[in-house]
Amino acid sequence: MKLEELVTVMLLTVAAIDQYLPIGLVLAGVLLLYITVVHGDFIYRSYLTLNRDLTGLALIIEVKIDLWWRLHQNKGIHELFLDIVKKNPKKAAMIDIEKDTTETFEEFNAHCNRYANYFQGLGYRSGDVVALYMENSVEFVAAWMGLAKIGVVTAWINSNLKREQLVHCITASKTKAIITSVTLQNMLIDAIDEKLFRVDGIDVYSVGEPKKNSGFKNLQKNLDAQVTSEPKTLDVIDFKSVLCFIYTSGTTGMPKAAVMKHFRYYSIAVGAAKSFGIKASDRMYVSMPIYHTAAGILGVGQALLGGSSCVIRKKFSASNFWRDCVKYDCTVSQYIGEICRYLLAQPVVKEESVHRMRLLVGNGLRAEIWQPFVDRFRVRIGELYGSTEGTSSLVNIDGHVGACGFLPISPLTKKMHPVRLIKVDDVTGEAIRTSDGLCIACNPGESGAMVSTIRKNNPLLQFEGYLNKKETNKKIIRDVFAKGDSCFLTGDLLHWDRLGYVYFKDRTGDTFRWKGENVSTTEVEAILHPINGLSDATVYGVEVPKREGKVGMASVVRAVSFEENESQFVERVGARLSSSLTSYAIPQFIRICQDVEKTGTFKLVKTNLQRIGIMDTPSDSIYIFNSENRNFVPFDNDLRCKVSLGSYPF
């Protein structure tokens, strides 16, 4: 029915009813009918989500009040940790599965103090930087917490990095020293031997016996000789001080060092605890890399700031997950979606029916396996969405399947939330703007890029960015909803459904996500381009059946004049990628092309290649990475069948 027809019917109805009822009651009825017809759907949706939105609003208020109180106290993380130590001196704090050791809060604090006193004795002061290139271990946590006590900033280096990427992360931090493990020192020696960087003026420590003739120092011997009392207070270290650098693979280039301040660490750890009900009585199982925010803050932070016990495994093991959880009586774990798929694929073991695990907190769990995972393992999922450097995050507080969080649909409650979605170009990822230059906000039922408010006068909404200020500016979008305002642009596409739930859709820009890690395509291209006999190359992510995220694929063009057969060329390319990249960053497919499409300004066009994916084309040949021989083999029909069935061991 058209609007004018509806109005006519309403007027006739009013005229008829007016003969029998008071005019006030009639008008009230008409108003009610109008509201029902025009706004009825919104009212119904608001009713369905009222409890969720009010709960979320109460959570935001609770977290903000707590953070403002901590800002008023202005204590650093190390001081807040000491408060926890005093409350729980004899309680188990850190359990290292690899070393089979348990340290109480009192013992772990003494462990931290050895680091603090040793480096303070060497003259290290607030603002100095020490790079940590170590595997998951209690030692890693003790190192950064101990150094934080004297104001030394630690750079958390990805333990999978090697050669160019490793050197970039170390040099970008302007570190005065490097602390590494006995096993990882070999990667440092390799980079030095390849003359990729020099360690002149940088002290390199091995937590254990260093290799002969390496020039590295045995840190363990020095630590054993240190006193365990609290270090001297020589500098002001407070809630707003820089705590560490955490490397994130953004949309372009090499990994970027995101600046993490004490209050940001606190807000992530405590915000997650309040959102999902993590308590001091819980035991947190951490098997994800603790050089990342998720495990290093969201996981380990529950012990340091909440008094939970923390169980650390060197590397995730699907076959040992439930055994560990039972053996160490774990009740909470941190996850990424990929490990949930691995766990579901495991055969049933007796431990999965007797564990006390009640909650898994993390991100990236796909809707297709969410409910089967919950049903089989009898756990609650605490899905969230955020970034290391971002100013805000989303949380799924009611366990809605597939959602990474929610945004209120009510105009009243959504003003309290600093996160919005804006419309962007599907191909370029650029914000779509109106004639007056402002961005267009998404409505429920639409997809867009997430932006979070930046306010310089509000410490909770300040964007600290990266060490590289040019990279920082790239993540800031201006004139978003009003002239002069600014927001942090996440680089991800999200879908906002009609009930306000938000779902991760895709990444924008030159990045894809594989095995729980963000991979910068330009970073991989930088490794490919110097190869002799290669005239052009482009890297992008493609979907493969029954796998999380997108797998890397490189389309390369051989130089015509180079005398070498294709298999020899591919072998050289594979050797270069294997020696220079982490396992998750190595493209799993290579497509040999006649040419790659470019724009008029010679920018590579990847959309058509992404659409083709791993499909065969008459003019191209495709190779797949074999993890056993660490190189590429022809992508024949047998391998294609394994990939389609999800059984190929990427």
From TrEMBL:
Residue intervals of the AMP-binding enzyme C-terminal domain: 523-603
Entries under InterPro entries matching the protein: AMP-bd_C, AMP-bd_C_sf, AMP-binding_CS, AMP-dep_synth/lig_dom, ANL_N_sf
Compartments, record wording: Cell membrane
Superkingdom assignment: Eukaryota
EC number: 6.2.1.3
Keyword terms, alphabetized: Cell membrane, Fatty acid metabolism, Ligase, Lipid metabolism, Membrane, Nucleotide-binding, Transmembrane, Transmembrane helix, Transport
Parts of the chain that traverse the membrane: 20-44
Ranges where the AMP-dependent synthetase/ligase domain occurs: 85-405
Protein name per its UniProtKB record: long-chain-fatty-acid--CoA ligase
